[in-house]
Specification:
By secondary structure, the chain is α/β, with parallel strands linked by helices. 37% of the residues lie in helices and 16% in strands. It comes from Streptomyces polychromogenes.
């Protein structure tokens, strides 16, 4: 590949952006080319170092990336994205904020604005291969290399589906009705094109950059994300005497019953001396209020991905989590700090009647494959209170 070839990263969440920074750090360490030759986009689309209008983004430093942030609509995600974007700028990357959902942005407008850069890029880094908007963006792509960085545990399902030649579908999504099936049929050509862009073939390399325990499909390259950049940039953290609990959005995605979840949190807090609850960015204020009232826990809404929060500290000597990405990422990020990461499985009785048939097996696989974690018995969090 031409060492001056443009590299374009497309991210939609704070975790994806963090993992792009980790990937860039690893490639620099390997001496791999990163340089982007794409001119920066001046004006209000650029992400300021601190939120506020009128400050243009600098171009990328030598070896830097062009990163396009496609923010969701929820305030927590947007706030975290802006803060991680500021860190990315400090690392020498050019960051462009491109609205594509609601408000001042539209999918069609964003697709029109980004299509030329996508078409020119010789390497594209993506964070969520299941995103329909991202799949649309990949249609005009002609890149010689595609890199998929983690968007959490969904990477495990992506690798499995790609290896089986299946259409890309989120593990927690149910079949829907007739209207949903019609939409799937209409969208099938786009989904098929995206899958081809993400499949290794002659003249097209695919790399997986992940903390998840996956076996790449034939022809794909695997690079382990051990959070080397995070460990070099932050910490080690100060440890508190208490235990911290990591929240999950399984209620919000319709997988876990909200009352069973509240019972489980209450039991874990009582059994393990939990004092703080780190909320997932998608958890609703109503749910968090109910948790606080029922348990007395301090609810923390992190302004950065949890890997950075934990590494900066203070953090509990024990961090308890339900099946989620952090049971794979925190052991890397907190290597050598003395923090124990513990995981509590999801009892099948907690699942909703509408949960995907894949839910039970997928969640069990998330915890069963985690490295360097302590497994908590289901009795520590009863199915009903």
């Amino acid at each position: 590949m031409n060492p001056s070839a443009p590299t374009l990263a497309l991210v939609e969440s704070p975790v994806q952006l963090l993992n792009v920074l980790e990937w860039a750090h690893t490639r620099r360490g390997d001496g791999g080319p990163l340089l982007t030759a794409v001119p920066r986009q001046p004006g209000p689309a650029a992400v300021p170092r601190q939120p506020g209008p009128g400050r243009p983004a600098p171009g990328p430093a030598a070896g830097g990336l062009r990163i396009v942030v496609l923010p969701p609509t929820d305030p927590m995600s947007r706030g975290q994205l802006r803060r991680v974007a500021g860190i990315a700028r400090d690392e020498g990357h050019a960051v462009q904020w491109q609205e594509a959902r609601g408000g001042s942005g539209s999918p069609a407008g964003a697709l029109t604005a980004l299509a030329p850069a996508v078409r020119r890029a010789e390497r594209i880094v993506v964070g969520d291969p299941f995103s329909r908007f991202l799949q649309l963006l990949l249609v005009p792509a002609r890149a010689a290399e595609t890199v998929v960085v983690d968007d959490g545990t969904a990477t495990m399902e992506f690798v499995a589906q790609l290896g089986r030649g299946e259409r890309l579908r989120r593990w927690h999504r149910t079949g829907g009705g007739a209207a949903a099936r019609v939409r799937e049929l209409v969208y099938a050509p786009v989904s098929g094109t995206a899958r081809r862009r993400l499949t290794p073939r002659a003249g097209h390399d695919v790399e997986l950059f992940t903390s998840m325990p996956v076996t790449p499909p034939p022809g794909a390259r695997l690079r382990v994300n051990d959070f080397a950049w995070t460990r070099a940039r932050f910490g080690p953290p100060r440890l508190t005497k208490g235990t911290d609990l990591v929240g999950t959005s399984l209620v919000e995605t319709g997988v876990v019953d909200p009352f069973r979840y509240l019972d489980a949190v209450r039991a874990l807090a009582r059994e393990h001396g939990v004092t703080r609850y780190f909320a997932h960015r998608r958890e609703t204020p109503e749910k968090l209020r109910a948790l606080s009232e029922a348990t007395g826990l301090e609810i923390v809404r992190p302004d950065l991905p949890l890997e950075l929060i934990a590494r900066r500290g203070p953090i509990g000597r024990t961090v308890v989590s339900f099946p989620s990405t952090v049971v794979h990422t925190l052991p890397y990020a907190l290597t050598g700090t003395g923090v124990t990461v513990a995981v509590c499985d999801i009892d099948p009785a907690w699942l909703t009647a509408t949960a995907s048939p894949r839910a039970r097996g997928f969640l069990a696989g998330v915890t069963g494959t985690a490295r360097d974690v302590r497994r908590l018995p289901l009795g520590a969090a009863p199915a009903a209170g």
